[in-house]
Specification:
The chain is of the alpha+beta class. It is 49% helix and 12% strand. It is built from seven helices and four strands; from the N terminus they run αααβαβαββαα.
């Protein structure tokens, strides 16, 4: 974990061991699942270049998370994309229920409107209980959008547009991911060991 992450954790009175674990779990998921299974063909480049910022929110209520979201949005746009292209905001102490998290996303989009960032930044989301409509909870295809912790992915629209333009048939990514997870199966997913390595919650 970069020194600045240690300093941020310490200055806020956070438990460094929890922060290290949550950052490590998220990096492991990114490397083994998102990049390892090529679920997002755009992720490897920014990962290799060190342009992904990982932030851990200690919010225990949605209103506190909204404040953290605003902070991370402003921090992202204060830097050149070459230094920080995207941010993963990891939420470990609230919104552990997927339906609650899903409801929160409307508030997150409202923050973009409040900050006049619509068309500038988009928010993608991941959750350990993610479930596509019309699927069973144990359907392996749900794992395409499952991360160790509830996570808000802050993406610059310009970067998304460039990535899509550079990748032929980007509209086929979703279908390809479904096939990848189906072929991998539940045992194969479990073998990746990309779940949280510790309990969530306060």
């Amino acid at each position: 974990m970069p020194d600045r992450d240690f300093q941020t954790a310490a200055s806020n009175g956070l438990a460094l061991d929890d922060t290290c674990r949550e950052l490590g779990d998220t990096r492991r998921w990114l490397e083994r699942a998102v990049i390892g299974l090529n679920l997002c063909p755009f992720a490897k480049v920014v990962h290799v270049k060190g342009q992904i910022h990982y932030a851990v929110s200690r919010a225990t209520q949605a209103v506190e998370l909204l404040d953290d979201l605003k902070k991370e949005l402003n921090s992202l746009l204060a830097l050149d994309p070459g230094a920080r292209d995207t941010t993963l905001l990891i939420v470990s102490r609230c919104l552990n229920d997927f339906l609650d998290f899903n409801d929160f996303l409307a508030q997150a989009d409202a923050v973009l409107a409040e900050l006049d960032l619509q068309g500038v930044v988009q928010i993608a989301s991941f959750h350990p209980q993610f479930q596509f409509a019309g699927t069973q909870a144990d359907d392996i295809t749900n794992s395409t959008n499952r991360a160790p912790y509830p996570t808000l992915h802050l993406l610059r629209e310009d970067s998304v547009d460039r990535a899509v333009a550079a990748f032929p048939k980007s509209e086929d990514i979703f279908e390809k991911n479904m096939q990848t997870l189906t072929q991998l199966g539940a045992e194969g997913w479990a073998a990746l060991d990309v779940g949280p390595h510790g309990k969530m919650g306060p």
